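HUMAN: Mind making up another protein with tokenized structure?

ASSISTANT:
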Amino acid sequence: MEEGRMIAMGVIAYTDYAIDARVIRMAEAASVHGYAVDLFAPRKRGAKRREVLNRVTVHRLAVRPFGGRTGAGYVLSYLNFFIQCFVVVSIFQLKRRYRIIHVHNMPDFLVFSASLAKLLGAKIILDIHDPMAELYLAKFPAKAKGLVYRMLLLQERWSAAFSTKVLTVHEPLKRDVLAKDGINPVKTFVVANFPDDSIFRPLERFTISDRIRMVYYGTIDTRFGLEQALESLARVERRESLYLRIIGEGDRQSSIKRTIRELGLESIVEFENRVYPLHRMPDILASFHLGLVPYLQSPATRYMLPVKLVELMAMGIPSITVANVPIRHYFAESMYFAYNPERSGSLTDLLTRILENPGLVLEKRRAILDGHHRLLWTHERMKYLEILGNL
């Protein structure tokens, strides 16, 4: 479709666009399908202010994503991004006449930065990746049911009411959390957070010879329980037969470095304190036998479907994780290793059992290859494009 005939579409996301799989998948799907996509995101150090990536025009605003641990810091960073988006998107709306603006949370209230666009006829999508109230309780459990928690619920409801449609990442989150929070299920649609099967493909070669190689990649945050996982690893008697590579950035990266050193795990744990663009991850993951996808049980993680788990499955790589509600909903138990983070020794026992019988990893891989085909972005992409078409 020629540029002059393309439908103008805006995307707002408080994220690093280079590594946010869901935002990338949706923006590229729209751009290939005939939408002229402008994406507005914060600007990390060294990133270009404007560039075109796979037909998506990325505009990076003069604010960096907050990486601290205080609620006030997050709020101030969100407000800064909100104000800049309101100004820039309003100007672009007058020039481009967006028909659709897709806003990814967090925060939910970013939808109001498209207020002028809505007045001028744009349809607004709110995409709830994570329910903010539940995630707040995971970060600050001492403040459960307090004023901030109630305010987060209220802004979620107002944001959803303002939006034309609400999207979310899986069925249990829509059914058990968002409906309970007061969001109308009739206007809520699931586009599952499944991996792009044009990027993540099954490995043709998969052999275990010497050490079992595990990988964790993603955000380094308290809710993922990496320190506790490292303590479990340190208690494994034959731990020299294991290797763990941690790849990522986040609030707890200093703590992870300290924990590795204090537990004497330097010979078997490597912490690569950086992130890679999404398209580079398959080549990096290809040398590993197991994914490590840990987290602590909390109101937020109970309904978290880890995208890393599904990406690894798409490559035929089994993972060690905690079987929460969406994982049980989408995957058979034969497709992953599960442990109980609330039982001391559970992960240690599981790692010991895998070391004693590496064939268990191959059994999980066979189960994944038999059943993962229905859990790919190809199917969800069609659902998303149908939603855009209906708008």
Observations:
- The chain has a mean pLDDT of 92.
- The longest helix spans residues 71-96.
- The first strand starts at residue 7 and ends at 13.
